[in-house]
Hints:
Blueprint: H1 10-34, H2 36-44, H3 61-79, H4 86-93, H5 99-131, H6 140-165, H7 171-196, H8 205-209, H9 218-223, H10 233-254, H11 270-293, H12 297-320, H13 329-348, E1 363-369, E2 387-388, H14 391-408, E3 420-428, E4 433-440, H15 447-454, H16 457-463, E5 474-481, E6 488-491, H17 494-510, H18 513-517, E7 524-530, E8 535-540, H19 545-553, H20 557-560, E9 567-573, H21 584-593, E10 598-600, H22 603-612, E11 621-627, E12 633-638, H23 645-650
Antiparallel strand pairs: 1-2, 1-3, 3-4, 5-6, 5-7, 7-8, 9-10, 9-11, 11-12
Helix pairs in contact: 1-3, 1-5, 3-5, 3-6, 3-7, 5-6, 5-10, 6-7, 6-10, 7-11, 11-12, 14-15, 17-19
Amino acid sequence: MSSRITWFNRELIIYIFRxxxxxxxxxxxxxxxxxxxxMLAIILNxxxxxxxxxxxxxxxxxxxxVLVIVIPVLLAIFLFRFLQMKQAxxxxxxxxxxxxxIYVHMIGTGIxxxxxxxxxxxxxxxxxxxxxxxxRLYTMTDIWSWMGITFILEALIFSVAVLIGxxxxxxxxxxxxxxxxxxxxxxxxxxxxxxxxxxxAGFSADYYLSGNLxxxxxxxxxxxxxxxxxxxxNTLIYSILTFLFxxxxxxxxxxxxxxHVSQAFVYPKIKPLFKFxxxxxxxxxxxxxxxxxxxxxxxxxxxxxxxxxFGYYLGExxxxxxxxxxxxxxxxxxxxxxxxVLVLFIKIDPIQYKAKIPDEKMISQIYIGDSPLFFEDDGxxxxxxxxxxxxxxxxxxxxxxxEIIDKGKKVxxxxxxxGQSVFLMYELKNGKRLxxxxxxxxxxxxxxxxxxxYESNEYKKMVNELLNVSTEDISKIKxxxxxxxxxxxxxxDGQQLEAAVQALSEDLNNQSFAQMTSSFGDFATIEILLNNxxxxxxxxxxxxxxxxxxxxxxxxxxxxxxxxxxxxYILVAKIDSQIYxxxxxxxxxxIEQQPNRMKxxxxxxxETAIDHAQIDWGGDxxxxxYYKESRDVDIKSFSGEHVPGFxxxxxxxx
Length: 654
């Protein structure tokens, strides 16, 4: 009797259901538990009117996340587990059916085991929605969106797991490689961006890493499924990739040798690629680790060398499946040569990345700040808080940029995260952007150019919201004294509000660059409440001369700010050790234990100390402020020209 080759094989379907059907049932139970049962509990709860969801992904979010990333991988492993087991492989391939048909059976049932639980869960939610008025919990659109996005993400993860299963002969390795492959795009991008800043001055790793990278990896996308839109570019790309991965898997399966079981990789050409990727990832990771922990070039290079050796050795262990291996030094030397050539290519900078400054005619506006982490990209207006577009400021920033590049040829910039930073973001008229970040070890030499930019009226209006509101927009001003003092006042009178806002505006407009970047004399916190319930905060310090004068003239100063009468005494000491790792109480003890410490008790000296103290602890002299009505201690410091004369006299440093 001749054998028949058909597209449907009963024995194969029975085999699939016996070996894999439990995963589909487990998935269905998980979905019902996380959505319909949760919704039913909310509906039956008498206080359900207080429960709200952004969408269905917000309900039992962690359970849904685990199901989305685990179920597809389990399905792919158990569906194609026969490829890793000789007896099962012989049985499946002895059936009167082609490999393509076997593949279609496996993929079809896998999609069914993912799709049917989603469809059944969605049907139950639709039934709830039609029978009960729960429109505030979710809508029909939410149901269809949840079903579509969940299925697309799971199908992509499933297709990747299937593709990995075609190139490996170990089931456990298939699962591990699947998650590595899914996370690899983001991981490589993060490692590359974090390391390339050592080679190219001006490259801003933080800017590129602060962007939304979730769309690059389905694993990260699954953590924020509630933010995914069904009809979007990402879902279209995911769908196309799913199709391509499944086609590639079929191509590999039809050419796979059946005797290749229990091997890490069944295709020899993949082995060097795996080893190369693992080696470069370990090299970049250890180099980044030593750069963040030590910041020293010697340790960074040691990290690169040690990481590459360990990664190469680990790759050999995985491929040979034993600790006792013979390392192929020729392959490692080849890897090192390739890396050196790549580093030299980046360092030579053939595209002139380091020297590129946009032409003034191409610039629409420029953002300038200390760090890209403070850069706020407003998608609606596309104008963050301190974008500058006046011609004078654009010229000044371009001049600053050019000077940084010119001095960078002589003074080290951009290689290590030491020194103060400058971040520039050019918004060009063609819609493109150009971002640069520099860590300047010779920051003081740029102070005149920076002052010209920061002291401009345009910049001050951009960073000080008070300069852009009128008195009519303000409902009240609350002033709370700094330190361990219980004093505050609230201004609501219209005339006083107008006078206070005018004084504050004058002080903000008159601030120098030094006063804007360093605060001396921490008097009080000013809280300005607008009519739209938005609040602005200012720190009242010694640079607010007009506001201080107005507060004194109105007799409100002593009621609202830190005064000499609030302080019992101040201890001042010069501490050479690193103080940033200490708490305030520990540092206060260190100051008390200094044999040459100075104790300030007179009212006039305390008042002078309040006016000249800076909030941070990084000054030349550390100071512990002890209050009359509190046991808590505040730590401040004095530095530079702001050190009072009587302190310098005490330490004989005049």
